[in-house]
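Justification of computing resources. Each target in the renewal requires a structure prediction run like the one illustrated here; the chain below, 156 residues long, is used simply to show the kind of job we budget for.
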Amino acid sequence: MQTRSIPGHNHVAPVRVVELFATDLQAPVCRLPLAVASVSAGFPSPADDYLEGALDLNQYLIKHPAATFFVRVAGDSMIEAGIHDGDLLLVDRSLEAADGRVVIAVINGELLVKRARTMGERLFLLPENPAYEPIEVREEMDFELWGVVTYVIHSL
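Resulting structure tokens:
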């Protein structure tokens, strides 16, 4: 796999993956009905039962199929970002891991999901749960950036 990094932090590490799902570019397309009307999250509105057409979730969610994969979350360090234990994350390896993006990274062989923050020349991986400490990526760490999280999938 191609290694991507945040400018100033170009390290490569061995990777241990627990559960990873690759994009199947040959999979059949599954189009589902798409309603024209939006759903009100505030006051109720009269329902329109008109369908706009069909929606293919792969086409809607995946912009770079060859660079996209799913990974399952284990833990609650990103709970305040709306990422829960057991969620599936859609990760795009072709996107730039700009400051503030939620990323998948590997540090010393451990796969992590955190928010990337740069402060000057320093890189931090921040949890979105006050029970966890930020991680400063230092030169002596084996570090690899795997990609940028673009969507979270979880049940209600």
